[in-house]
Amino acid sequence: MGVYFLAIFVAMPIIEIAVFIQAGEVIGLWPTIGVVILTAILGTTLMRAQGLQTLAKAQSQMDQGEMPIGAMFDGICILVAGVLLLTPGFVTDTMGFLLLIPPLRQVVGAKLIMKLVQSGNIRTNFGGGAGGAGHPGGPGRTGGGQNSRRPGRGPIIDGDFEDVSPDDKPSSANDDKKDSNDPDQGPRNLPPHNS
């Protein structure tokens, strides 16, 4: 991987110089410099607008209890696009503008995720819940209906309860041992009720 970055680091300035020379011969020196400055200004404006939209989208997803993975990837692409657009050159400007196109970012993101999944460096769970098949909230959960897990609702705890209040408690042999004149004495094994 380091070899690729070194090759890009060495090759990119050479390519940019060659393109500058060709553009200077075709449109002249000052128009070439003007185009580079104009693309930097335009790119910075687009980057700021899309960055604010992405930030709002990420905030909205986090408020709904979702992980804003797509918005984070968009933010990274917009940041890289900004660096490329501020770097003088036609090739870097072209790459920066391409990263500012949302459908192209989605295609790049999908291919990158598939490559990471195939390499085994990332694990995914598309079940929409906390676990996989057989876990509560996962795709293998049975019972659906009201108790099915929805994002942002917290954990679901299933259980049974038994009301042990003094009014509903069935009579037993131990009731004779209680002091019937003591109203503060609650059910057995529970702390006294203070009024």
- What is the end-to-end distance? 72 Å
Enumerate the spans where pLDDT stays under 50 for 5 or more consecutive residues: 128-149
Radius of gyration, in Å, reads: 32 Å
Quick one: biggest sheet? none
Annotation, overall tally of beta strands: 0
- What is the H-and-E element order? HHHHH
Q: Can you tell me the overall shape?
A: elongated
User: Helix count?
Assistant: 5
Strand % is under 5%
Task: Explain what you see.
The chain is 55% helix and 0% strand. The chain is mostly helical. The chain has a domain of 108 residues. The longest helix has 35 residues. It is elongated. About 11% of the residues have low confidence.
Question: How would you summarize this macromolecular structure in one to three sentences?
Answer:
With 195 residues, the chain is mostly helical.
